[in-house]
Design goal:
The complex is a heterodimer of chains A (about 160) and B (about 325). The N and C termini of chain A lie far apart (about 55 Å). With about 160 residues, chain A is of the alpha+beta class. Chain A is about 35% helix and about 15% strand. In chain A, strands 2-1-5-3-4 form a five-stranded mixed β-sheet, with helices on both faces. In chain B, helix 11 runs antiparallel to helix 12. Chain B has about 325 residues and is α+β, with helices and mostly antiparallel strands. The chains are: A alpha+beta (about 160), B alpha+beta (about 325).
Chain lengths: ~160, ~325
């Protein structure tokens, strides 16, 4: 099957890549664009490791074809830091033990980024719901929840 | 579940080889007219892509094959929510569940549907999964379907020979099977206007709150007349039959009565009697029947509380 030229907006830049129609957005990001911050866990939409923001909303990159990307604004974990500086949320996750093996962390960071953009004062229940689609097998979630709550609190000060 | 998936770069190679071996190459189409869509859907090996949350894993795991993928998200009306000519609401089949769950008018007038849309998968899944996909996958457990049934939803289906409109209930033929013809596409879902004094709710049982499939789901809608007696009732069930079903005996048990504990209990027992579940890995048939009674009772009690609030609000 012939490849298609795909033009997409990723992390604020217009990028082009040759892709197979069968490529998922995750394949496009990792294999065609070299953005390996987005992880593949289950590959069928259960684990949330591949969460990216599409037009500001969290989406499993493994459940979207790359050919659906044109016209959408895609944000991956690589697009968050400015000049190599972590965001406040990323810093709080690191400082509070909210990341251990790190595999789920990019997805958690993007789900939480979308939550905080929508809700400046999320309750614990809001936070837990926002990351319900992101499995973490290390932390037990408490430290992740606390890091997100702390970030919201600091931003309100 | 294949081995090697969780281990980084090794997983990538395994998956790339898997895909070439299992997922047939396909051509991707994104038609902007119904005529174009229906022509493409009439081809051998054509499949509809809406949200893709079921289709993409099915293709990857070789549970389905496709040589043409027809993306319906740009078709006219498919991605919009609009007022209906009858004062109701028309929801495009490709509207994502998250949009349905947050839509102010759906929250106010069709709350059972908003509740169900907010239960499908995770937020990530809700941002892609569509109502049309939830219907046309024809899973007996589809969360959005019981609420749509209690609202007497109709659907518009377009094909090469034109358009037809049918009650949602008539779409389902069996698990994973619909009565749509090859080349047809479900484009819009029509919800009739709701009576002023009415209430609705959807409840499901799952071992986990998110990322799970309804062991049983129950939707209820009740409308009352000026006398406070039930004038219209709808109860629909998920995961207890080969398709989502209405519990018509339970509905009939409520008509002309006050929505008191006795009427609610009787209707819930009737709903249980109408369920014809199977036993599978998620629950036994007996357990599912017991769940139908409990969830029907709770859903109807919720409707009663909302009606009481509305009545108290008007009396003040």
């Amino acid at each position: 099957m012939s490849r298609l030229m795909i033009e997409a907006r990723v992390n604020g830049e217009t990028v082009t890549a040759l892709a197979d129609p069968r490529d998922t957005l995750l394949d496009l990001l990792r294999d065609r664009l070299g953005l390996t911050g987005t992880k593949e866990g289950c590959g069928n939409g259960n684990c949330g490791s591949c969460t990216v923001l599409v037009d500001g909303e969290p989406v499993n990159a493994c459940l979207m074809f790359a050919v659906e990307a044109p016209g959408r604004e895609i944000l991956t974990v690589e697009g968050l830091s400015r000049n190599g500086e972590l965001t406040d949320l990323q810093r709080n996750l690191a400082d509070s033990g909210g990341t251990q093996c790190g595999f789920c962390t990019p997805g958690i960071v993007l789900s939480a980024t979308a939550l905080l953009a929508r809700n400046a004062a999320p309750s614990e229940a809001d936070i837990r719901l926002a990351i319900a689609g992101n499995l973490c097998r290390c932390t037990g979630y408490d430290k992740i929840v606390r890091a997100i709550a702390l970030t919201a609190e600091q931003r309100r000060r | 579940m294949r081995s090697g998936r969780l281990c980084g770069s090794l997983g990538r190679n395994v998956i790339a080889e898997d895909r070439d071996a299992k997922m047939d190459p396909f051509a991707y189409h994104r038609p902007e007219s119904l005529a174009d869509a229906c022509e493409r859907l009439g081809r051998e090996g054509a499949r509809i892509l809406a949200g893709g949350t079921d289709l993409i894993p099915q293709l990857r795991e070789a549970r389905r094959r496709a040589t043409h993928i027809v993306d319906v998200k740009l078709l006219p009306g498919c991605a919009a929510i609009a007022a209906g000519d009858d004062g109701g609401l028309v929801i495009g089949a490709a509207v994502p569940a998250s949009v349905v769950a947050r839509h102010p008018e759906i929250l106010a007038r069709y709350p059972a549907l908003a509740a169900a849309a907010g239960m499908i998968g995770s937020l990530q899944v809700q941002n892609r999964a569509t109502l049309g996909g939830n219907i046309c996958n024809a899973a007996p457990s589809a969360d959005a379907v019981p609420p749509l049934l209690v609202f007497d939803a109709q659907v518009t289906v377009s094909g090469r020979s034109g358009e037809r409109r049918m009650p949602l209930e008539d779409v389902f033929a069996g698990p994973g099977r619909t009565n749509l013809e090859p080349g047809e596409v479900l484009t819009t879902i029509h919800l009739p206007p709701q009576a002023a004094r009415s209430a609705s709710h959807y409840l499901r049982f799952t071992p986990r709150r998110e990322m799970d499939i309804a062991v049983v789901g129950v939707a209820a809608r009740v409308a009352c007349g000026a006398d406070g007696l039930v004038s219209e009732a709808r109860i629909a069930l998920a995961s207890v039959a080969p398709t989502p079903i209405r519990a018509r005996g339970a509905e009939a048990a409520l008509i002309g009565r006050g929505l008191d504990e006795g009427a609610i209990a009787e209707a819930a027992r009737a709903a249980m009697a109408e369920a014809r579940p199977i036993s599978d890995t998620r629950a036994s048939a007996e357990y599912r029947r017991a769940l139908v009674e409990v969830l029907a009772r709770r859903a109807l009690a919720h409707c009663r509380d909302r009606l009481d609030e509305a009545f108290a609000g008007r009396a003040e």
